[in-house]
């Protein structure tokens, strides 16, 4: 296996859906199937929150969602839990600034995809130096999904990174919907990452399709 190319990573980030059991009112399997039908390009398993599954239940739930992704050839990324990602032979891992260091995670996962959450230029440069394949930048808008999220920062860091000539694949996150996604792309982002816009939609396929059509319309 070799590391994913910058171009392939950018393509995968276009509509990046993140979900765990606590983000859904409908059956999560149905939500994921519908999101894939609507055109998501990448999936992150993020099982967090008070009523989240743990231990064997978490492992089994991840396996079920991973098998849906495999059936449709959507790469499956695991949030935070490197050991789970390795046990499942997932396609990659996403970590934040409060998780294990990117350098340590890169050593553990070899050439699997590594995403790192970043909130300023120093964190972006460090993530790249330590082996990130992409960076998440957020929260772009305010979000109620992540209890410990920082204040909304709009697209200014995306612009700053691009103005420095850094071409790392970037995905924006936080409060994004098809109504407000355009500035992320126009500032130099390669895609949008969403939870609520799809997971709590009454029609997840339609919401995913609307996001895909918007992103596709921006080139
Ligand atoms: C694509 C993407 N970007 C950012 C995050 C947030 O990661 P982190 O800061 O580690 O917070 P948690 O998601 O672990 O609560 C993400 N998961 N995905
Ligand atoms: C998981 C996560 N990380 C963020 C960050 O800023 O790093 S914001 C966020 C929550 C995104 O959920 P929604 O699309 O429902 O706002
Ligand atoms: Mg994390």
From TrEMBL:
Keywords: Magnesium, Metal-binding, Thiamine biosynthesis, Transferase. One of its GO terms (molecular function) is thiamine-phosphate diphosphorylase activity. It comes from the Bacteria. It is an enzyme of class 2 (transferase). Its EC number is 2.5.1.3. Binds 1 Mg(2+) ion per subunit. Its cofactor is Mg(2+). Pfam families: TMP-TENI (PF02581). Pathway: Cofactor biosynthesis; thiamine diphosphate biosynthesis; thiamine phosphate from 4-amino-2-methyl-5-diphosphomethylpyrimidine and 4-methyl-5-(2-phosphoethyl)-thiazole: step 1/1. It catalyses: 2-(2-carboxy-4-methylthiazol-5-yl)ethyl phosphate + 4-amino-2-methyl-5-(diphosphooxymethyl)pyrimidine + 2 H(+) = thiamine phosphate + CO2 + diphosphate; 2-[(2R,5Z)-2-carboxy-4-methylthiazol-5(2H)-ylidene]ethyl phosphate + 4-amino-2-methyl-5-(diphosphooxymethyl)pyrimidine + 2 H(+) = thiamine phosphate + CO2 + diphosphate; 4-methyl-5-(2-phosphooxyethyl)-thiazole + 4-amino-2-methyl-5-(diphosphooxymethyl)pyrimidine + H(+) = thiamine phosphate + diphosphate. Gene3D superfamilies: Aldolase class I (3.20.20.70). Mg(2+) binds at residues 80, 99. 2-[(2R,5Z)-2-carboxy-4-methylthiazol-5(2H)-ylidene]ethyl phosphate binds at residues 143-145, 175, 195-196. Residues 15-198 form the Thiamine phosphate synthase/TenI domain. 4-amino-2-methyl-5-(diphosphooxymethyl)pyrimidine binds at residues 44-48, 79, 117, 146. Transmembrane segments: none annotated. Belongs to the thiamine-phosphate synthase family. Condenses 4-methyl-5-(beta-hydroxyethyl)thiazole monophosphate (THZ-P) and 2-methyl-4-amino-5-hydroxymethyl pyrimidine pyrophosphate (HMP-PP) to form thiamine monophosphate (TMP). NCBIfam families: thiE. This is Thiamine-phosphate synthase.
């Amino acid at each position: 296996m070799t590391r994913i190319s910058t171009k392939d990573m950018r393509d995968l980030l276009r509509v990046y859906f993140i979900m765990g059991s606590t983000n859904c009112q409908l059956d999560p399997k149905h939500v994921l199937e519908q999101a894939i039908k609507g055109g998501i390009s990448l999936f992150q398993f993020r099982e967090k929150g008070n009523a989240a599954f743990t231990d064997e239940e978490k492992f089994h739930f991840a396996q079920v969602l991973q098998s849906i992704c495999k059936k449709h050839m959507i790469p499956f990324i695991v949030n935070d839990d490197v050991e789970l990602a390795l046990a499942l032979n997932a396609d990659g891992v996403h970590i934040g600034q409060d998780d294990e260091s990117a350098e340590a995670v890169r050593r553990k996962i070899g050439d699997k995809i590594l995403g790192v959450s970043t909130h300023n230029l120093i964190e972006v440069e460090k993530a790249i130096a330590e082996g990130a394949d992409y960076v998440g930048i957020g929260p772009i808008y305010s979000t109620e999904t992540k209890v410990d999220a920082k204040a909304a920062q709009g697209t200014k860091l995306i612009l700053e990174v691009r103005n420095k000539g850094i071409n790392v694949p970037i995905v924006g996150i936080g409060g994004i919907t098809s109504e407000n996604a355009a500035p992320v792309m126009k500032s130099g982002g390669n895609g949008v990452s969403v939870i609520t816009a799809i997971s709590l939609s009454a029609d997840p396929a339609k919401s995913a399709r609307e996001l895909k059509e918007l992103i596709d319309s921006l080139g």
